[in-house]
Amino acid sequence: MPPFATCDRWVAERSKRHGGEFFGDAEMNATVTIDDHVESWMNRKVHSVHRDASVRDVLEIMAKEVIASVPVVGEKGEVVGIVTLGDLARVVLSTEQVLDSDFPHYEDCFWAVDLFQRRLGSDPVLNVMSENVTCVRPDQSMREAALIMIRDRIRHLAVVDERGLVGMLAAIDFVRLIAKV
């Protein structure tokens, strides 16, 4: 099997899952630069949850769509938070710390399993989401978006306009951009 066969299959599968456009709108551009607008590279297929969703709802979306962040929206569609894999990792670590410090012999207890299932299942998404969501506009440049991500040490940006959430921009989108330059 050629060394890139696995990558080619991954690109084909990812492209199929995201509407057949692995490189987005910018693929059609004659020239690609870091000054392209965010709207050319953002993912328009946003998978979000309402603020009353459960952590399990977020986990199911992440697993099904193979994504690392899910924005949380309010009644009017406004972005009120975001759940990332990092947020979920913190939940797991904090739960483990509680069990280790308060109950050193939790391995034998059914309630320990219940605690994990509740924190990563039926608990409300509001308990795990990050409330400070960094956003960009579709007309901002990819350079500006990259500088924001570096400054804030984040991997995901919500893209919003006057209508609300219109897309998501992730670190992988910069990899796609570099691959096209």
From TrEMBL:
Residues 42-101, 129-181 form the CBS domain. Keywords: CBS domain, Repeat. Transmembrane segments: none annotated. Pfam families: CBS (PF00571). This is CBS domain-containing protein.
